[in-house]
């Protein structure tokens, strides 16, 4: 009888450990996404200042400036599965903005523009690092959900896999500047 109680206790302890591990990984995924959100907020706050600085030096680049503004607004409004796609589009439009700015010597020499460009570049670097961390945490959670016997426990408590933050195909290409 003691052996049966010990076996049940071991199984119960294992069950609790696996469940707690899954919950811990889910919370890590949430925290990693929150880190991305923080950097995205910083990016959203910098973009209007950058656009105004560019607007003063490159008045006829209205289409590029408007596309950055539209992409920023779409990214801020996006949620769920569309959020990653909207953020990828914003990254692409920012690349185009910096490519356009290369053709304006007075803009490139403008101290405000250079400061904003450095800040935005730093923010983009932090966003990339946060995305990588997020993907690492998601991979850990998804792997644990797929492995036996934790997959049984995950199914019992409806713990599902998370989607990786993937790069859009358009982000893989260098921006094209046309005049």
Number of domains: 1
Mean pLDDT, to the nearest integer, reads: 83
Count of strand segments: 0
Q: Roughly how much helix do the residues carry, as a percent range? A: over 70%
Question: Can you put this structure into words, describing what you see?
Answer:
With 179 residues, the protein is an all-alpha fold. It has one domain (2-172): LemA-like domain (de novo design (two linked rop proteins)), CATH 1.20.1440. It is built from 6 helices and no strands. α1 (2-57) packs antiparallel against α2 (62-77), α1 packs antiparallel against α5 (111-146) and α2 (62-77) runs antiparallel to α3 (82-101).
Furnish the topology, listing elements before pairings.
Elements: H1 2-57, H2 62-77, H3 82-101, H4 105-109, H5 111-146, H6 150-156
Helix pairs in contact: 1-2, 1-5, 2-3
């Amino acid at each position: 009888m003691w052996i049966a109680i010990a076996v049940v206790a071991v199984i119960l302890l294992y069950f609790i450990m696996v469940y707690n591990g899954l919950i811990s990984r889910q919370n890590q995924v949430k925290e990693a996404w929150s880190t991305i959100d923080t950097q995205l907020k910083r990016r959203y706050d910098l973009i209007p200042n950058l656009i105004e600085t560019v607007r003063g030096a490159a008045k006829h680049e209205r289409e590029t400036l408007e596309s950055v503004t539209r992409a920023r607004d779409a990214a801020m409004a996006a949620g769920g599965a569309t959020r990653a796609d909207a953020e990828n589009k914003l990254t692409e439009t920012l690349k185009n903005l910096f490519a356009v700015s290369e053709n304006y010597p007075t803009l490139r020499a403008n101290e405000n523009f250079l400061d904003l460009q450095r800040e935005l570049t730093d923010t983009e670097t932090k966003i990339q690092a946060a995305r990588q961390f997020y993907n690492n945490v998601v991979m850990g959670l998804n792997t644990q959900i797929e492995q036996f016997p934790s997959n049984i426990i995950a199914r019992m408590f409806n713990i599902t896999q998370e989607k990786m933050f993937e790069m859009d195909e358009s982000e893989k290409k260098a921006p094209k500047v046309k005049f």
